[in-house]
Amino acid sequence: CKANQLYLILDLHAAPGRQGNDVNISDRDSTQPSLWQSPAAQLKTIALWRKLAERYRDEPAIGAYDILNEPNWGFEDPADRNGLKESQNKPLRDLLIRITDAIRSADKQHIIIIEGNGWGNNYRGVFPLWDSNMVISYHKYWNTNTQESIRHILEAREQQHAPVWLGETGENSNTWFAEAIRLLEEAN
Question: For a designed S-S bond to 11, which of 66, 82, 101, 127 qualifies (C-beta 3.0 to 4.6 A apart)?
Fold first, then answer.
């Protein structure tokens, strides 16, 4: 990336213990405790981010740290396996803050990207932001390209006074992508 003047975003796709019930996303082994059920896995995740921050703190090719990809977990209601209905997301917020603190102990400059529950889109209970150099990420798959489909992230941007980042999208048609680009550019 440095040789080609590109930024690299470090993104933790499979945390120790795994951060979700969706096996395709987090390689979850349901016979083992999840990240949310294992204090040891949480400590490993925090230590990993501290080590990464120590290593890359002075690296200009690193654009940001995306600290936990697509958490999807029912904290309040285990039947809500992917955390779409969560209203508090307290364990998620608490872990994101602990990871941020570990990163900031070594690296005060790089952007930290956070993702909500429910594959990066459910931020209920995660706000307010706790660091002045954060970006709110969301993921957009298989939905309409209307103002309503991005309303939640535009509201978060406004309320938190923070930039937003479409961290993932795909699996759609070329027409869908053209419409999505137009919608997102209109929303700045």
Answer: 66
Q: What is the largest CA-CA distance in the chain?
A: 48
> Residue 24: CB partners within 8 Å, gap ≥ 6?
none
Distance between CA atoms of residues 188 and 172, nearest Å: 22
Joined together, the tokens standing for residue 108 give 């005060």
pTM over 0.85: yes
Instruction: Classify strands 134-140 and 111-115 as parallel, antiparallel or unpaired.
Output: parallel
What pLDDT is attached to residue 142? 85
Alpha-carbon 164 to chain mean position: 11
